[in-house]
């Protein structure tokens, strides 16, 4: 009993609730898929949803907790995705298949993204506000543009790299892993819903452990009042870098999961629009609210597919829904009404306690 | 000579970016929001001009006028319906709304006009040669540069000399104080959106004269470029947007000519990052110090 009480203590409540949401959703989906009560369309969306949730959790750390607008999260997904394609290619050539490949790919993808995120964070975090936002946008575009011109081939002699023009000749039995604008091809798909759910849970644990740690408190302090935080000896650049790098590594892990779910994909998949979409998921779910991020990501990835019966009107409806949510959630009269309702509820609860 | 001709075409392209960036920067300066739908107003202007010229058979100037009127109305309507209710909301909510508006405009135009690419009628072709024919300059580049300089000068005069311009500067400095001085802030913001959208229509026609194809996502890339140009020059500053636009156009054209077409995007953004590292608020941006 005490354990449960502890799990729902004010400090741990949000962590427990978000983990429960993932576990319950996973259980329901598993039951549905084992009894074949799930449409093929929804089935095909499950792994991408998990990948987007992981990337959005990372972005929420950056935007919600660190308070820096990041318009380049898809770039980190891209790094993770293409790193994992290369590693999976090497493993497959040596006859290793299945879940071990996925695990190594996710780890390597997140390390690679974290490394590049760390390099990028040095110039990025010198700036503030909208200037910082545009530099993350710029890095996202640069990453996409570079990968779009990258050629990687694998044969008996090892890996071959080429840039801009593909001038490599592979030995017999070799194959291209990444071919520039054509993207990654011939990927063996290993991602599963279980792997996705585990990754989301790990991402949540990482995020919550960071938030509840000393560094996490430093991050929120630096967000709420930069000058005050600096004056009590918190290193702003260190805390912001930490949030940025963890966010990038979660993006990389998400990219790896995403990549191994498709037999082929292009670098343009991770463009400015996908970065913006991730930001939309985070903002709609509520800044700093992980459960909200999970629910809004799942809904907004599935929504356009569910709206398919509207045919060409679906993206129009999607846009209207987006604007309407923003207008309604910021409506002053509705806000005061909600406030009054909450106060009433609180008052009756207190009365009951007496 | 080749360098000079690239430089002139770069200036032409940069002038288009500068006109778009002026609209972006003015809206940012006064409403303090990144209007991501600005690029899609360009798209609307391009379609308006296209149909005015092909379906209605209007001459270029009349089509430009129609396109400007439609864009201005569209810009003001969007501001009234989508952005005005969010004056007190967080900047992120406004950003997401702007993205929603951008999706809406793209998909609405796809539904109305189809997703196929329409060929914009040729507006101004031909060129003249200088230096005994060693350098050929297209009339279009010259026209674009001239229009851009005129717009920039008129806008600077408007902001600095007229009463409305003064009110605009007051709003961008301190909205609360501006209200107390009897300035109608809502009207000023509407005027700003009207001017920005009208400029977008001019940019649309110049853009389509250079790249004669009209399609629903036409505005997104120039929109991002103009946003970059505005930040490059210092967002909120009118001469900054002008300078940033020109520089961006020149860098892009030279990078395409001398380094690599595929990598021109990466080079443009790399230059932006370097500039921001040296001058964190853009080339002509004001440095704001925060009082404790």
Question: What is the strand and helix layout of this fold?
Answer:
The complex is a heterodimer of chains A (354) and B (292).
Chain A: H1 2-7, H2 13-34, H3 40-65, H4 73-93, H5 99-124, H6 129-147, E1 150-155, E2 158-163, E3 175-179, H7 193-212, H8 214-224, H9 226-231, H10 236-259, H11 272-285, H12 290-306, H13 314-329, H14 332-353
Antiparallel strand pairs in A: 1-2, 1-3
Helix pairs in contact in A: 2-7, 2-12, 3-7, 3-10, 3-11, 3-12, 4-5, 4-6, 4-10, 5-10, 7-8, 7-10, 8-10, 11-12
Chain B: H1 2-31, H2 38-54, H3 60-83, H4 91-113, E1 118-119, E2 127-130, E3 135-138, H5 139-161, H6 163-173, H7 175-180, H8 185-210, E4 213-214, H9 220-233, H10 238-258, H11 264-278
Antiparallel strand pairs in B: 1-4, 2-3
Helix pairs in contact in B: 1-5, 1-8, 1-9, 1-10, 2-3, 2-4, 2-8, 2-9, 3-8, 5-6, 6-8, 9-10, 10-11
The largest pleated sheet of chain A is described as: 3 strands, antiparallel
Instruction: Give the overall silhouette of chain A.
Output: globular
- Helical proportion of chain A, percent range: over 70%
Q: List low-confidence stretches of chain A.
A: none
Strand tally of chain B is: 4
The strands making up the biggest β-sheet of chain A line up spatially as: 2-1-3
What share of the residues of chain A does DSSP label as strand, in percent? under 5%
- The counted number of beta strands of chain A is 3
Measured by residues with Cβ under 8 Å of the partner chain's Cβ, the largest interface is: A-B, 44 and 44 residues
N- to C-terminal distance of chain A:
24 Å
Beta-strand content of chain B:
under 5%
In the sheet with the most strands of chain B, the strands line up as 1-4
């Amino acid at each position: 009993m005490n354990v449960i009480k502890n799990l729902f203590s004010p400090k741990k409540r949000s962590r427990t609730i978000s983990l429960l949401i993932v576990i319950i959703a996973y259980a329901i989906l598993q039951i549905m898929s084992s009894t074949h009560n799930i449409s093929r369309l929804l089935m095909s969306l499950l792994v991408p949803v998990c990948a987007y949730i992981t990337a959005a959790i990372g972005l929420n750390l950056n935007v919600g907790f660190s308070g820096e607008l990041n318009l380049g999260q898809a770039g980190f997904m891209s790094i993770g995705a293409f790193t994992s394609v290369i590693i999976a290619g090497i493993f497959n050539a040596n006859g290793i298949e299945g879940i071990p490949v996925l695990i190594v790919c996710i780890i390597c993808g997140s390390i690679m993204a974290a490394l590049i995120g760390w390099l990028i964070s040095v110039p990025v975090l010198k700036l503030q506000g909208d200037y910082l936002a545009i530099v993350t946008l710029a890095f996202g575009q640069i990453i996409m543009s570079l990968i779009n011109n990258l050629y990687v081939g694998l044969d008996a002699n090892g890996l071959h790299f080429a840039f801009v023009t593909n001038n490599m000749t592979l030995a017999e039995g070799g194959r291209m892993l990444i071919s520039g604008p054509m993207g990654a091809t011939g990927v063996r798909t290993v991602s599963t819903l279980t792997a996705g759910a585990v990754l989301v849970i790990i991402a949540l644990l990482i995020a919550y452990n960071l938030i509840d740690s000393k560094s996490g408190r430093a991050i929120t302090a630096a967000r709420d009042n930069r000058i005050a935080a600096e004056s009590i000896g918190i290193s702003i650049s260190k805390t912001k870098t930490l949030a940025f790098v963890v966010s990038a590594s979660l993006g990389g892990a998400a990219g790896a999961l995403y990549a191994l779910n498709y037999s082929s994909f292009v670098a343009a998949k991770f463009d400015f629009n996908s970065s913006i979409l991730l930001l939309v998921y985070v903002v709609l779910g509520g800044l700093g609210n992980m459960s909200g991020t999970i629910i809004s990501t799942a809904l907004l990835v599935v929504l356009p597919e569910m709206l398919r019966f509207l045919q060409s009107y679906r993206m129009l409806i999607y846009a209207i829904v987006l604007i309407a949510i923003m207008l309604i959630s910021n409506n002053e009269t509705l806000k005061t009404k909600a406030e009054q309702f909450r106060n009433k509820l609180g008052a009756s609860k207190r009365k009951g306690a007496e | 000579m080749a360098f000079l001709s690239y430089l002139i075409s770069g200036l032409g392209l940069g002038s288009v970016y500068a006109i778009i960036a002026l609209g972006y920067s003015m809206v940012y300066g006064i409403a303090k929001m990144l209007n991501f739908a600005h690029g899609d107003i360009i798209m609307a202007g391009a379609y308006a001009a296209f149909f005015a010229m092909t379906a209605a058979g209007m001459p270029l100037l009349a089509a430009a006028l129609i396109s400007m009127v439609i864009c201005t109305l569209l810009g003001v309507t969007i501001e009234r319906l989508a952005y005005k209710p969010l004056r007190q909301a967080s900047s992120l909510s406004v950003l997401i709304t702007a993205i929603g508006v951008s999706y809406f405009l793209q998909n609405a135009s796809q539904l109305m006009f189809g997703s196929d690419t329409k060929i914009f009628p040729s507006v101004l072709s031909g060129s003249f040669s200088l230096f005994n024919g060693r350098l050929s300059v297209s009339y279009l580049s010259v026209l674009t540069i001239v229009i851009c300089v005129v717009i920039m000068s008129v806008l600077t005069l408007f902001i600095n000399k007229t009463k409305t311009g003064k009110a605009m500067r007051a709003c961008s400095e301190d909205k609360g104080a501006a209200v107390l001085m009897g300035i109608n802030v809502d009207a000023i913001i509407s005027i700003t959106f009207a001017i920005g959208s009208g400029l977008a229509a001019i940019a649309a026609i110049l853009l389509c004269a250079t790249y004669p194809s009209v399609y629903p996502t036409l505005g997104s890339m120039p929109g991002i470029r103009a946003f970059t140009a505005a930040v490059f020059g210092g967002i909120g500053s009118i001469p900054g947007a002008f300078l940033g636009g020109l520089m961006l156009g020149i860098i892009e054209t030279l990078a395409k000519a001398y380094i690599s077409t595929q990598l021109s995007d990466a080079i443009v953004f790399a230059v932006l990052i370097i500039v921001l590292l040296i001058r964190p608020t853009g080339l002509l941006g004001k440095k704001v110090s925060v009082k404790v």
